[in-house]
Design brief:
- The chain is built from twelve helices and no strands.
- By secondary structure, it is mainly α.
- It has two domains: 46-146, no CATH class; 147-243, Tetratricopeptide repeat domain (Serine Threonine Protein Phosphatase 5, Tetratricopeptide repeat), CATH 1.25.40.10.
- Helix 1 crosses helix 2, helix 3 runs parallel beside helix 6 and helix 7 runs antiparallel to helix 8 (150-166).
Length: 243
């Protein structure tokens, strides 16, 4: 049975090769094929030209949009420079709203939201709102932010968790701290987010899950700055659970 299938497959391959050979080596075959193509084009000229035009428009539109966004991003980066300076100086009102001459982060988001700078402005504005105690606005802006950078994206999740902690919503806080800890884990920052998650679970009286987060630090992040505290807090919770 296998031999028969092989013979059929081999025969099909030979037929294809002969067809290609005829097409290349026999001029009359090429002329005939060209004539068929030309006849099809003449018969369907409007359709072919329409499809071709649509493809050109789509490709041109995509390339044009990318160029436009790239040029806008360069402008937005320059416009955001002063807002970042204000943020670093803790002049958060000017950072968010500008100073009358220079854009603030909210202006960047409004005018350049589709750019990388506009995306980053959402992170900065969320962090700014968190610092001034506008926790709902902080959550909104940080949820709108996204990045493939392991440090910045994890930090955004953690800041959302901080905002929920301030609002007393420990359930959503713990979920976001877990997201921060699980986003491309590394030895430098993951233990810090695990500690935050453990505390949020403790606030929910979910000591079992809190112990699991402390234990993860002890088993996977030996030597981290959080190691000793994790061991101490885990022991405390286990003592509370003892009869």
């Amino acid at each position: 049975m296998a031999s028969r299938r092989y013979k059929v497959k081999k025969a099909a391959q030979v037929a294809v090769k002969e067809e290609v050979k005829d097409f290349i080596e026999k001029p009359e075959v090429l002329v005939e094929q060209f004539s068929k193509t030309e006849a099809f084009f003449q018969k369907n000229k409007n359709l072919v030209l329409g499809v071709l035009g649509a493809v050109i428009l789509v490709v041109g539109g995509v390339l044009g949009y990318r160029f436009y966004v790239s040029s806008q991003d360069e402008i937005a980066q320059k416009e955001m420079f002063q807002a970042v300076f204000y943020f670093e100086q803790d002049s958060l009102d000017q950072a968010l709203n500008g100073d009358g001459l220079n854009f603030g982060f909210l202006d960047i988001i409004s005018d350049y939201g589709a750019t990388n700078a506009g995306n980053l402005a959402k992170f900065y504005s969320g962090a700014s709102y968190l610092k001034i105690g506008e926790f709902e606005n902080a959550i909104s802006q940080l949820n709108a932010f996204s990045s493939s950078d392991l440090l910045v994206q994890a930090r955004a999740y953690s800041l959302i968790g901080d905002a929920y902690m301030e609002l007393g919503n420990y359930s959503d806080a713990s979920k976001n701290f877990d997201k921060a800890a699980n986003y491309q884990p590394n030895k430098n920052i993951t233990p810090h987010y695990l500690m935050k998650a453990a505390l949020a679970y403790e606030r929910q009286s979910d000591n079992t899950t809190a112990i699991a987060r402390y234990d993860k630090i002890l088993t996977s992040h030996f030597g981290s700055a959080e190691f000793q505290n994790a061991r101490k807090y885990k022991a405390r919770l286990e003592a509370l659970a003892s009869p």
